[in-house]
Specification:
Elements: E1 13-24, E2 27-38, E3 42-46, H1 53-60, E4 68-73, E5 76-78, H2 83-86, E6 89-92, H3 103-113, H4 118-131, H5 147-159, E7 165-169, H6 177-194, E8 197-202, H7 205-211, E9 214-219, E10 222-228, H8 229-232, H9 239-245, E11 251-259, E12 262-267, E13 270-275, E14 283-288, E15 294-296, E16 309-321, E17 324-331, E18 334-341, H10 342-348, E19 355-360, E20 365-369
Parallel strand pairs: 3-8, 3-9, 6-7, 7-8
Antiparallel strand pairs: 1-2, 1-4, 4-5, 9-10, 11-12, 11-14, 12-13, 14-20, 15-19, 16-17, 16-19, 17-18
Helix pairs in contact: 3-4, 3-5, 4-5
Amino acid sequence: MSASAHGRCGGTPVIVGEDLAVRYRRRTVLEVDRFDLCDGETHVVLGPSGSGKSTLLRALGLLERPTRGRVLIDGAETSVGDRAARMMMAAVFQNPYLFKGTVGENVAYGLKLRGVPKADRTERVAAALERVGLSGTERASALQLSGGEAQRVALARALVLEPRILLLDEPLSYLDPLIKRRLVADFSEILSAEGVTSLYVTHDQDEAMVVADRVTILHEGRMVRTGPADEVMTLPTDEWVADFIGMDAALRGRITATDEGIAEIVIGGELVYGCTPLPVGVDVLVGIRPEDVMLFETGGGIPHSSARNRLVMRVEAVERRGSTDRVSLSSNGLKIAASVSRAASKELGLGRGTEVAALFKATAVRVAPAPSVPGGV
C-alpha cells in the first residue's frame, strides 16, 4: 500500500492534492500522489529540513503553482489565481511579520482589507485576542512584544478572519525552548477549541505529537508515512522513519489470546501484552515508544508496578541523545528501546551486554493490523 493511500481521512476532504510535483531548476523537491486535509482536523506535515514540507503547504494553500498536478477544494479544482478560494484561508508563518502600530491594528488588518465595518472589527479583534490569551492588549505596541506574544498576535490575526482553512508553517520554530513548550500546548488547545481545519508544518516531533490529529512524514519530497498521529509516531514501518522518530521499526507479531481487551502477542520468542480489540490469529504491527519503557536491575529491586510487561533483556547499545540515553534492548527476537536519564544509565551500569528488567504497560503498546503486502505503509 502506498503512503498516499494509507491513513486517508475517514471524514470529508476539504483540500486534496493529486499527482503534485514541484521542480526548481530541474530538481524535483516535491512529488506526492495524493494528500488530503479533512474537515475539522489538524494535519501535521513532519520532516527534516529540505524534505518539502513548506513547498507542500504553499502548493495546497494556493501560494505557489505546482509544476504538475492539481489542487481541489470541496471537490472543485482550483489554482493560485482563485481569489475566492484564497479568502477561505489564513496563514501563520515562522516570522509573525507584525508592522509598526498597535496590537489591535495588526489583528484588524485583514478585516479592514475585507471592508468589515469598524465596530465589527473592534468586537472581533477583542474576541480573537481573548482566544489567544492576550485580552486587553489592543493598544499595546506590536513591536514591543516578546517572541511568544508576537506569535500569539499572528495567530489572532489569522483566526479573526474566521477562516475555513488555517495554514501554519513552522509557527514556533524561532522561539526559545521554554516559550515554545508553553506555546505549543496553547496552540493545540486553541486549534481544538476553534475546530478550524488546519495544515500544520513542523520539523519538531514533540510539537507534532501535541497538536496533530493526523501526521504525514515527508522525506526528500515524498510521503513515507501518513495516518493517525499516535499510529504514525509509534509504528514506524521502515528503517528511515524509525530512525527519524527515534524508535526501532515496528515489530511483527501474532495475537494468540485475548482477555477483556488485553491481547497476548507473540513476537519472536517473547510474549508481549497490548491493548487492542483485534481478535486471536491476526498478524499485527507492534510499537513501543522508548519513553514508555522503564529499566531496573534484574536482582529483585523492581518496585511494585501495574506494568503487565516485565521482560529480562540484554543491552545492545547505549547512545547519548541530549540529556538522555537511548538504550537498545533485545530478547529472543524482540527488539525495543528505552529512554533513560544519564543518572539512571550510570546507576544501572548500562553497557553492551548488561542484563536489565524492562517494564512497560499494556496501554503503552501500540497495535495495528499488519499490512498484507510486506513493507507497505
